[in-house]
Design goal:
- With about 775 residues, this protein is mainly β.
- The protein folds into three domains: about 100 residues, Nuclear Transport Factor 2, Chain: A (Roll), CATH 3.10.450; about 110 residues, Nuclear Transport Factor 2, Chain: A; about 400 residues, Copper amine oxidase, catalytic domain (Beta-galactosidase, Chain A, domain 5, Distorted Sandwich), CATH 2.70.98.20.
- Helices cover about 10% and strands about 35% of the residues.
- It is built from nine helices and 36 strands.
- Strands 18, 19, 20, 21, 22, 27, 28, 30, 31, 34, 35 and 36 form a twelve-stranded antiparallel sheet that branches.
- β20 and β21 form a beta hairpin.
- The radius of gyration is 29 Å and the shape is globular.
């Protein structure tokens, strides 16, 4: 959310106060006789306004979005309709985002030591051309910004591969509701206790859809989905009714091809109605649930309350103000500096990540989130979700201080364009930034006696976190980018939210999941996450090498047994020369380190000044290659893949992935199939993490987070002469005044004194704020 520009002479402390008020972070009032902590006006430097002249990595501003709209609506050949008039068979703008210049131009601009013109800004705009014959999705590059005068076609995509959108959802929902209610109203009411139309407080609804693309149906150009029926109570995903319809969409023509009910398939709604009139037809009765606080699917406080009294939980405080700054989507923290932005389709991305002003990563970006379910009935059997097609970035909004992020975090809005609004939409609290004491230590050691001691030295593990949370239907995903003081960059993902269970039957008992209550099976599913890591270690000419740890068979000189041998481990340097050699599938019998470096730069000791990539979230996909939808997500085959960077291979996935084909819009296999040289080239590491989730009763109502976090790390490896965090003012050293005579006492070396703080932590006013503005957290139409 934007703030007014600072007037000349305005006290910076007041600006900090205004920032915190707008963010719902704190209230500078007296509480129980003690004042809340003062904010250091020197440290609090965040500016969350939109720039008039955006930096190169900054998202499109609202001014730029509006100017692109105005320009395109004047292009008569596009025949664009405004939101509200658009239908799936018309031409309308689906969305737009920043289109980055060529990397070489960006690097030249960033590294130039003389004034250099900034590469012109541009937008990539997605237009649904339902008005064409055949219908098509067209992407255009519109430039230069902020006042565009030109556009060029970027690519065309078959219309049946278009991502899900509000215009289509509304049309499909209306069609399904009327068709099914018109033929099966009595059947639905007697079987599931509710209706689709005029339902009062006993409503049924088609809430979820399992895409069935050409690679599944083996029908070229087909766009189909299984739509599941649920009882519409909180939360509807936990109230399936074992009824689904397979719908085929060709242009604006909708056809119901199959109906599934009670382990039976039918060719039409009329066939179901005909069989239902037969007294011998197998009945299924699922009573409509009574909505109450005790309902198992409801996220309301219940059970044995704890703690015994309502005592507030602990929280962190910044006693002397924030130690980071945010301005124009650039964050500065200790020795770190980076830019961040949001892709409406693919989610959060970081750029120009520097440590001690040395470029480490040019781009770190989420590529896709995939969930593959298993089940006995078609909605789960074919539930292969590519979340990019549901627009990962558009679903960032409404993080709650004190729960989703610390109360004192800096909350940042994003502006995007959707097909349902002429004005740019504000995603309130799309990001948060905060510094956090993890409760661990970065390093520590105590030596209690001589000759080394006595001494103690330790540094708390303090990190900066940039967080985004996306909610795709039933699941919530926390995406953290974590910056450690010693030059380590961590990327973490944590899934939570509601599972998608199926109705319990004898056919699916124990095969696809455990029985959770008297009517549900918690279906097995596989979460997978792919990230792009464009690594630039001392420039763009890098090498990828694995340090293979192998067995060393050597002599055993102290053994009395003749010819005895001794086994230990040794390092084998393995330079990966081609892309096919750089495809990594974890093998427990072959431990290794993955390092990236510039061969032209060595440390004083002669070592390669490298960064190590550590994947601690690995998960193996068991699906045969190119089976079903597997080929659309070929990146899931490898836990790490390293390729030569190309401007034509910018993402491993796309928003066109849901309806899988044998030839997807982005085919990741093509990235390495040409097997190019990767020695001394600009390299990209594609990192895949994942976890198999077998739901259990404790996943009701919502999956908890402990044990589900997945992380990968970029860590300096002979890059610095010593620990770069040795200069941390957060360190504490305790030693004897005279190590030979402890009775003379000890001395303590520390430079921060939070124990002197006598004020209380700021009290957030967020909940008062949203009482008046519920759209901050919810979509209010």
């Amino acid at each position: 959310m934007s703030l007014p520009k600072t007037a000349n002479g305005m006290d910076k402390l007041k600006l900090c106060y205004l920032l915190l008020f707008y963010l719902g972070s704190s209230s500078l009032t007296e509480v129980s006789g003690a004042q809340t902590c003062e904010i250091d006006s020197v440290l609090c430097t965040s500016d969350l306004s939109e720039p008039d002249d955006p930096p190169i990595f900054h998202d499109l501003t609202t001014k730029e979005i509006k100017s692109v709209q105005t320009y395109l609506y004047h292009q008569r050949d596009l025949r664009l309709l405004r939101p509200g008039l658009a239908k799936i068979n018309t031409s309308f703008i689906q969305g737009m985002e920043l289109y980055l210049p060529n990397k070489k131009d960006v690097i030249h601009y960033l590294q130039s030591k003389v004034p250099t013109p900034k590469p012109p800004r541009a937008a990539v705009v997605t237009i649904f051309r339902g008005d064409c014959d055949p219908a098509v999705v067209e992407e255009y590059i519109v430039f230069p910004l902020p006042w565009p005068t030109q556009h060029r076609l970027h690519r065309k995509v078959p219309y049946y591969l278009r991502p899900f959108n509000d215009v289509e959802f509304a049309t499909i929902s209306d069609f399904l509701t009327k068709q099914v209610d018109g033929v099966l109203r009595q059947f639905l009411e007697e079987s599931f206790g509710g209706r689709l139309i005029n339902c009062g407080n006993r409503c049924l609804n088609f809430q979820f859809a399992s895409p069935v693309g050409p690679s599944v149906s083996n029908e070229p150009g087909a766009r189909k989905s299984w739509y599941w029926l649920h009882q519409l109570v909180e939360y509807s995903a936990l109230h399936p009714v074992d009824f689904a319809v397979l719908m085929k969409i060709v242009g604006c023509v909708y056809t119901i091809e199959k109906v599934y009910f009670n382990n039976m398939y039918f060719n039409s709604l009329q066939e179901v109605a005909l069989h239902y009139r037969n007294p011998s037809f197998p009945r299924l009765r699922i009573p409509y649930p009574v909505d109450s606080k005790q309902l198992f699917s409801k996220m309301e406080r219940r059970g044995i309350l704890f703690p015994e009294k309502p005592v507030s939980p602990p929280r962190q405080v910044e006693p002397e103000g924030k130690r980071y700054s945010v301005k124009y989507q650039e964050v500065k923290y200790m020795n770190w500096k980076f830019n961040f932005r949001l892709s409406p389709g693919l989610g959060p991305r970081l750029h120009n990540i520097r440590y001690h002003d040395r470029l480490i990563v040019y781009e770190l970006a989420l590529q896709d989130i995939v969930v593959f379910y298993s089940g006995a009935e078609p909605p789960h059997q074919y539930a292969n979700f590519f979340d990019s097609s549901y627009m990962i970035g558009m679903n960032l909004q409404g993080m709650v201080p004190g729960v989703d992020c610390p109360t004192g975090a800096t909350f940042i809005d994003s502006h995007i364009l959707t097909e349902s609004s002429l004005k740019p939409a504000k995603l309130i609290n799309a990001f948060c930034v905060f510094e956090q004491n993890t409760g661990d230590f970065l390093r520590r050691h105590i030596s209690k006696t001589s000759p080394d001691g006595p001494f103690y030295e330790g540094v708390p593990s303090i990190v900066l976190v940039l967080r985004a949370i996306t909610t795709i239907a039933n699941y919530d995903y926390t995406i953290d980018f974590i910056f450690h003081h010693n030059g380590v960059l961590q990327t973490k993902v944590v899934p939570t939210g509601y599972i998608l269970p199926s109705l319990y039957t004898k056919q699916n008992e124990n095969k696809y999941g455990f029985r959770l209550n008297n009517k549900l099976i918690g279906n097995l599913h596989h979460h997978l996450f792919n990230f792009k890591v464009d690594i630039d270690i001392n420039g763009q000419h890098n090498r990828y090498e694995t340090l293979d740890i192998v067995l060393d068979k050597t002599s055993h000189p102290v053994s009395k047994k003749p010819y005895d041998v001794w086994y230990q481990n040794k390092i084998k340097h393995n330079l990966r020369k081609t892309e096919m050699e750089a495809l990594f599938k974890y093998d427990f019998d072959k431990p290794m380190h993955h390092i990236f470096y510039n061969n032209n730069l060595k440390s004083p000791e002669g070592n390669n000044m490298a960064y190590r990539l550590v994947n601690r979230g690995m998960s193996k996909s068991l699906l045969p290659e190119c089976s079903g939808n597997e080929g659309t997500g070929a990146w899931m085959r490898h836990q790490i893949a390293v390729t030569k960077r190309k401007e034509t291979e910018l993402t491993s996935s796309s928003v066109y992935s849901a309806f899988g084909t044998k030839n997807p819009v982005v085919n990741f296999r093509n990235f390495y199939a040409d097997n190019e040289n990767i020695v001394d080239e600009d390299l990209v590491a594609w990192v895949t993490m994942g976890t198999y989730h077998i739901p259990h009763t404790e996943d009701l109502p919502v999956t908890h987070t402990p044990g589900l976090d997945l992380s990968f790390f970029l860590s300096p490896f002979n890059y610095f002469p010593e620990d770069p965090a040795m200069g941390s003012r957060d360190s504490v050293r305790i030693e004897a005044v005279d190590k030979n005579n402890l009775k003379r006492g000890i001395k303590i070396d520390k430079q921060t004194f939070p124990e002197k703080m006598t004020c209380k932590a700021p009290i957030g006013n967020y909940f008062e704020y949203i009482l008046k503005r519920p759209n901050v957290i919810f979509d209010i139409q």
